[in-house]
Amino acid sequence: MSLFTTLATPIFLKEDSDTTSHIARLKELQEQATGKVKDGLAREITLASYGEVGEQNIAFELKNSGMPMYIIHDLRIEFEDLSAQIDYVVVTRKLIFFIECKNLYGNIDIDNQGNFVRSYPWNGRTVKEGIYSPITQNQRHLEVLKQIGRSNRNNALTKTLYDKSFRDFHKSIVVLANPKTVLNAKYAKKEVKDKVIRADQLIAHLKNADKQCKEMSSNDKRMRSIAEGLLSLHTPNPTDYAKKYAELINVAAPTPDKPAPAQAIITEKLAEPIVSEKPAEAIPVAEPPAPAQLDDDLVAKLKAFRLEKSRAENIKAYCVFTDKQLQELIGRMPKTTAELLEVSGFGPVKVEKYGQGIIALLV
């Protein structure tokens, strides 16, 4: 082996994630909270931890691959008004893989149109529901990176050559991290099958893709340079998603001069107005705007999304979300699944089912 290709094991250039620090922050706040706020924190910790477990499963596979490669966990990039958060970037000697981790409960079927359908047992019966395509989600992430690369090209020819090179060297993979999930993709098209795998198939998939690639292998220096270039694009997430809980706890805490009335505010429901016998002391809670204040364009987009989902699932449109919930979505403008859970009528199942599509329209 050449002196320039001596790397034989995987190296993590970035192993931490925003999820880890987010969970730690939520747990700190949970120790201070009571009542419904404590319940809300417990729910958000559970959801975040479930996703973290899936990412840890992938990390385990990568660490034990025995492959020479550089790995970046939780890469967040921004370009103009676009942003992307990529679970894992893996740089091998020939290719760059962008991995979207999905730790889903239940089994997944992919039809010949590329639709994803999840089935799971519930109250003695099997529930089937469509989910937002993780392939589309990951492709949007890659598009942000592609736009960054294109912005550095000066003319149409170099942009065209870059586009072709990008397709050849950047590969999208969706990894189902739950070991109990059964994937049925026998009716899916080949280009879809090639992008969705189980976690225990990940390393074989990477090795096979590298083997089939006819391009020349990069040496250690070049491989690390590519990975460090991608890592240099990382922008930490400035949003503190735990802030709303901290504010609720601070509002609820009694001051030395004036004790909190009756029970602390944190015993009240998070998403409902707080009722007080003394109106002057009531805590203001944001309400959805009146219909006249709604953004007509956004209303149209949300209704189109609702109609599309209802037709695909052969259900009534209001089963996706009602007009009242539509108003609340625009009033709150949730940017994360955790914030979407605070909208009335949006539980974990509905958020898993429609959350990414709704958030994509709102951000």
Strand order of the largest sheet: 1-2-3-4-8-10
Query: Major β-sheet, in short?
Result: 6 strands, mixed
SS-based structural class? Answer: alpha/beta
Number of strands: 10
Order of helices and strands: EHHEEEEEEHHEEHEHHHHHHHH
Separation, N- and C-terminal Cα atoms:
49 Å
Low-confidence stretches: 252-292
What's the helical proportion of residues?
Answer: 40-55%
Count of runs of 4 or more consecutive helical residues = 13
Can you put this structure into words, describing what you see?
There is one protein chain. With 363 residues, the protein is of the alpha/beta class. The protein is built from 13 helices and ten strands. The chain has helices at residues 18-30, 35-63, 134-151, 156-169, 190-193, 202-212, 220-231, 243-252, 296-313, 317-320, 323-332, 337-340, 348-362, and strands spanning 10-14, 69-79, 82-91, 96-102, 107-110, 116-122, 125-131, 170-176, 183-184, 196-198. The chain has a six-stranded mixed sheet. A hairpin with a 4-residue loop joins strand 3 and strand 4. Helix 1 packs antiparallel against helix 2 (35-63) and helix 3 packs antiparallel against helix 4 (156-169). The longest helix is centred in the N-terminal third of the chain and has 29 residues, at 35-63. It is globular and about 60 Å long.
